[in-house]
Amino acid sequence: MEADRLISDQPVTSKGIVIGCDVWIGANTGIVDGVHIGNHAVVGMGSLVTKSVAEYSKVAGNPACVIGSRKK
Known about the structure:
The protein is mostly beta strands. It has strands at 18-19, 24-25, 30-31, 36-37, 42-43, 48-49, 57-61, 64-69. The strands form 3 sheets. Strands 2-5-7-8 form a 4-stranded mixed sheet, with no helix packed on it.
């Protein structure tokens, strides 16, 4: 960030967030730019997702980490 320019006048870059099919994201969850959340994943409420989440994974925490799997 440049101190001599308004924030609104500075360039913005973004990788985007990709959310797969059948994904559940709990309330008050933060997801960092560039993260991919795989199909059928579950993200616990209040989590901060800083890395991509594999398909069928259950993640929670700050930072979010794997706590289980939806596969039997």
